[in-house]
């Protein structure tokens, strides 16, 4: 069985365009669905955060209108309680080496826009993992973490690669709106990634060799399925 590292934001707020702080963290559905599917398939999953800080769940991700109903919200809550010991003592991202894992998975929530997008330890891991063909799978706002991956000469490691991410349309229409400090889709395009988006709020996954990206929370299951297929190859 494979070893998977789930890299989760340690941020609990995002500084908005107007300077206010917006409570955030990881999105429950994204972490739960990916973690559960990988574990049920028999793979080992470790959780790591910057500094080994316990990650914060975005409370908005339990809202019934976000989850598809109160039963689904309770399902996510119950699973997070089940893995609470792991969430309480995550690995320190800076202590991890890419060689110890077959895949790196990065769920979203707005948290990655506050820390992972500029985390040097994550950048080091992503560059090393990509060079050795390990699976890299960020989704929703998780692809913000790709922005940390810069080669020795300052080149964005994923320039020219096909990706998707939470879209500007989705951010403006159902995310943090006009007050969003920056947009993941735009930032990836400006760095040279080839961003391919699907219809808003529908499952959309792009696989470019070892790089697997998903557009939104609705893509969580499909991302995990593609990662499972890639691990089986």
Automatic annotation (TrEMBL):
<protein>
    <submittedName>
        <fullName>Dimethylallyltransferase</fullName>
    </submittedName>
</protein>
<comment type="similarity">
    <text>Belongs to the peptidase C56 family. HSP31-like subfamily.</text>
</comment>
<dbReference type="InterPro" id="IPR050325">
    <property type="entry name" value="Prot/Nucl_acid_deglycase"/>
</dbReference>
<feature type="domain" description="DJ-1/PfpI">
    <location>
        <begin position="28"/>
        <end position="228"/>
    </location>
</feature>
<dbReference type="InterPro" id="IPR029062">
    <property type="entry name" value="Class_I_gatase-like"/>
</dbReference>
<keyword id="KW-0346">Stress response</keyword>
<keyword id="KW-0456">Lyase</keyword>
<dbReference type="GO" id="GO:0019243">
    <property type="term" value="P:methylglyoxal catabolic process to D-lactate via S-lactoyl-glutathione"/>
</dbReference>
<dbReference type="InterPro" id="IPR002818">
    <property type="entry name" value="DJ-1/PfpI"/>
</dbReference>
<dbReference type="GO" id="GO:0019172">
    <property type="term" value="F:glyoxalase III activity"/>
</dbReference>
<dbReference type="Pfam" id="PF01965">
    <property type="entry name" value="DJ-1_PfpI"/>
</dbReference>
<dbReference type="GO" id="GO:0005737">
    <property type="term" value="C:cytoplasm"/>
</dbReference>
């Amino acid at each position: 069985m494979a070893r998977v590292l789930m890299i989760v934001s340690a941020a609990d707020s995002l500084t908005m365009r107007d300077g206010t702080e917006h409570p955030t963290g990881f999105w429950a559905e994204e972490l739960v669905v990916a973690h559960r599917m990988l574990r049920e398939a028999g793979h080992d999953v470790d959780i790591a955060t910057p500094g080994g800080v316990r990650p914060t769940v975005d409370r908005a991700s339990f809202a019934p209108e976000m989850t598809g109903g109160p039963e689904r919200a309770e399902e996510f809550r119950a699973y997070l309680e089940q893995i609470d010991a792991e969430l309480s003592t995550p690995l320190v991202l800076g202590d991890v080496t890419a060689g110890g894992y077959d895949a790196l998975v990065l769920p979203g929530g707005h948290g990655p826009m506050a820390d992972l997008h500029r985390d040097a330890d994550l950048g080091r891991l992503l560059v090393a993992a990509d060079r050795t063909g390990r699976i890299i799978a960020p989704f929703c706002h998780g692809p913000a973490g790709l922005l940390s991956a810069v080669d020795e000469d300052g080149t964005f490691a994923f320039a020219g690669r096909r990706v998707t991410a939470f879209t500007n349309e989705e951010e403006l229409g159902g995310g943090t709106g006009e007050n969003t400090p920056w947009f993941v889709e735009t930032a990836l395009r400006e760095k040279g990634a080839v961003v391919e988006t699907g219809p808003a709020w529908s499952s959309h996954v792009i696989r470019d060799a070892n790089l697997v990206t998903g557009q939104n929370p609705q893509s969580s299951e499909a991302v995990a399925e593609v990662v499972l297929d890639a691990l089986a190859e």
